[in-house]
Write a structure and sequence with these properties.
The protein has 115 residues and is mostly helical. It is built from 1 helix and no strands. The longest helix has 58 residues, at 6-63.
Length: 115
């Protein structure tokens, strides 16, 4: 029961009988029984509510379609997928691809004039 033995329960009943008397003891036991039954009913409703919420949440997660990760890009440093063209950065890859007459980073330094 609650970690108490038969002797302890018997002592509690004898004390209750002496304290409340034989006329009020049945009414007291009846109201105690109703209180315990209401407590069990309320705790069962709470438990069912929690289980239903968990079940609804798990059903919602399992029916959700998988997230499309292709729109999120690739990891840094990873190359294009097989059959996928290389990403364009907007800048020409070589100096030959640049527009004619455009300045490039490679400029030759001229030696200072001696004079």
């Amino acid at each position: 029961m609650f970690g108490i033995g038969f002797q302890e329960v018997l002592i509690i009943l004898v004390v209750a009988l002496i304290f409340f008397g034989p006329k009020r003891l049945p009414d007291l036991a009846k109201s105690l029984g109703k209180g315990i039954a209401e407590f069990r009913k309320a705790s069962e409703e709470v438990r069912k509510g929690i289980e239903d919420a968990v079940k609804e949440e798990s059903v919602a997660e399992t029916t959700k379609p998988p997230e499309d990760l292709s729109s999120h890009g690739k990891a840094p440093g990873s190359g294009p997928a097989p059959g996928e063209p290389a990403p364009s950065t907007g800048a020409p890859a070589t100096a030959e691809d640049a527009a004619p007459g455009a300045a490039t980073r490679e400029t030759r330094a001229t030696p200072p004039e001696q004079g």
